[in-house]
Amino acid sequence: MNNFKDIKVVVSDVDGCLTSGEYIVSDTGSISKSFYTRDFYTIERLLNEGIHVIILTQSNDKVINKRIEEIAKNSKYWKNCLKYRSLVLFTNVDNKFEKLKNYLTAETSCSLKDVAYIGDSENDLKCMEKCRVIGCPNDAIKSIKDIDGIYISEYDGGKGAVYDFIMYILEKMEKNNENFRT
């Protein structure tokens, strides 16, 4: 059984997890994506619990940057999380495993065993094989869904999968704390 009280970092992929993975491209070439508001609500809950959040994407578009800037503009709390690196965003990442491992080593006192990770495709696989708790959206690729012990959300990417995964973690952490007290 996973020891959820040891989770110190939660990592989320963007395309296919925080979004549906679909791009909407206008005739002028601007790109837009749709985000599920409750995903960011639960990210804030993690930050309030002192859990670091890393958003990690292979995508090089600036849509996720704009979304986080928009939230931070309206929230002093989010600005502080960005300033003190409780919330970190990495875009244009070719090798997610190396990026995550190197960041944890250089910038935190955490290892991959302190991480919960939600991903949906091949570029998430190596990270997911090494992290303590893993989850995926309902519409993740088969090889991800077939990983032993993975939490498969009943929701698709961009439709509440990240919210569901984080709520699962928070509930398990609370249950671990209750068991610890008794």
Strand-residue fraction?
Answer: 5-15%
The portion of residues assigned to helices is: 40-55%
Q: How many strands, which pairing sense, and closed or not: the largest β-sheet?
A: 6 strands, parallel
Number of strands: 8
| CATH A-level architecture | 3-Layer(aba) Sandwich
The CATH superfamily is known as HAD superfamily/HAD-like
Between the first and last Cα atoms, what is the distance in angstroms? 18 Å
The run of helices and strands is EEEHEHHEHEHEHEH
Q: What is the 3D shape?
A: globular
Strand line-up across the major sheet? 5-4-1-6-7-8
The helix-and-strand class reads alpha/beta
Q: What name does the CATH topology carry?
A: Rossmann fold
Structural write-up:
By secondary structure, this protein is an alpha/beta fold. Helix 1 (37-48) packs parallel to helix 7 (161-181) and helix 2 (63-73) crosses helix 3. The mean pLDDT is 90. It has helices spanning 37-48, 63-73, 76-83, 96-107, 125-130, 142-145, 161-181; strands spanning 9-12, 24-25, 31-32, 52-56, 87-90, 115-118, 133-136, 151-152. It has seven helices and eight strands, in the order E-E-E-H-E-H-H-E-H-E-H-E-H-E-H. The longest helix is centred in the last third of the chain and has 21 residues, at 161-181. The chain has one domain (4-181): Rossmann fold, CATH 3.40.50.
Task: Write a brief caption for the model.
The protein has one domain: Rossmann fold (3-Layer(aba) Sandwich), CATH 3.40.50.1000.
List keywords for this structure.
182 residues; alpha/beta; Rossmann fold; six-stranded parallel β-sheet; two-stranded antiparallel ribbon; 7 helices; 8 strands; 41% helix
